[in-house]
Write a structure and sequence with these properties.
The protein is mainly beta and about 270 residues long. It is built from 3 helices and 18 strands. The chain folds into 2 domains: about 90 residues, Immunoglobulin-like (Sandwich); about 110 residues, Beta Complex (Ferric Hydroxamate Uptake Protein, Chain A, domain 1), CATH 2.170.130.10. The longest helix has 24 residues. It is found in: Cell outer membrane.
Length: about 270
Amino acid sequence: MHLLNNRLGRITALIALGGAALYSQGTQTANITGTVVDAAGAPLAGVVVRLTSPALQGVRTYTTDASGKFIARLLPPGFYTIQYTKDGLETRKITEQIGIDQTFSPRVTMNKVGGAVVEVIAAAPAVDKTELKTASNYRNDSVDLLPNARSMEGVALLTPGVTAGVGGRVQIRGAMTSGNLYLLDGQNIADNAYNNRGLSVIDDSIEETQVITGAMSAEYGDVDGGVINSITRSGGNEFSGSLRWELSNPLGTPHPRTGPPRHRQHPG
């Protein structure tokens, strides 16, 4: 009986740990599901689709099936160039930015025009009719142009329905500050005491942040307010870096101030 109890205890612990790992994952990737047709609207099979992006290490290649469809899943968010080629048909090119937990579904028509390359700057639909949750996505380059605290909470405050709480915390849809979920690359980084962000994050290392404020799926769980979901930058084929210097001095202090002037110089 003692041996049986030990085994049951171990199994219970493994199930609990597995559940915790699944709970923390969230969604960190993007998808492209495309359709290719001819001038008459009939599906085109055998079209070679090549994806290139600064977020990818190399080129990803797909081929359309008998329905003229291809599916590219688990892609790192970023700017993508999609090129369509098939013998005897014009070459098509689409450029699109895809964010966290977003699916881009282009429908491309290829005509029998020899030697032509048609480039299209595509835009995703303003409203995704298949999406239930309410979310806003912020890329690092866009955040740099906006006034914010350069933190996960600072980015969240750019979102409708998010307000500043006590001690730099945020309230989403009026819920308590302890009712939010903080994810970094799929891992829950909230502290165990108050369920606030418990890990310091270098803002220059963040590629994109998604703020979910309503109708989130069950994969997140145990959330009264919302989800602040960030992913870090990934390597690509292009070398890049950043350099910054943050300066705070009395010239930027509001009047009348409630405390001593703040002096701060912070390189990064």
